[in-house]
Amino acid sequence: SLSYPLKCTLEKLECHFTWDLGCNKNELVHHYNLLGYIQQTLGFNTEALKYLHKAESVMQGAKEAGVWLQVNKANLAWVYFFMGEMDKSKGYLEEVERLQGMHPAPPGCALHPEVSGENGWTLVKFNKSKKRQAIYYFKMALKSEPERKEWHKGLAIAMSKDLNDLMTVRKGRLWLGNPLSCLRRLSDMIPIVSK
């Protein structure tokens, strides 16, 4: 077939399609929600709705779907609000409230850890100037899920965004604080993988 030589040539390229990125539902949902937000801020409400509905369809059947839908439905409520469709916006708001009742935040936490973690990852990836907020949300997620690798990884990344956060002076001594201990804890949790 004529497509075989072309495919062999394409496989030699360096791009997203050849980097073996893998694909998991968490990342797809995160990216679709973020793309929905970006499209709406650019004024493309119809495109925003398409991405947000794609995120919703990816979530179907996932065990965390009820929690993930809280963020997604809140995004939909905002897009419909900006479009002037107040009844649809209010309907999505009611769905968010229902989902929050079904999947409440653990005691002592303002948000469900999935929502806190999603917020943290969005801030780390999208708005580097809000890293302190990202740190706060990852710490909040870790408060109720202290063994969750994803939250430790996010916290380590957020804390390492600025070298000044890694090295501070306390009482005249260089102090390498939480970021390094966070990285050590994360490395202890992740098994060594060889290629």
UniProtKB/TrEMBL annotation:
Entry annotated with the keyword Magnesium: no
CC per GO annotation: cytosol
A single GO BP: defense response to virus
UniProt keyword terms in alphabetical order: Repeat, TPR repeat
Source taxon at top rank: Eukaryota
The protein's name in its UniProt record: Interferon-induced protein with tetratricopeptide repeats 16
InterPro entries associated with the record: TPR-like_helical_dom_sf
UniProt record similarity statement: Belongs to the IFIT family.
Biological source species: Sinocyclocheilus anshuiensis
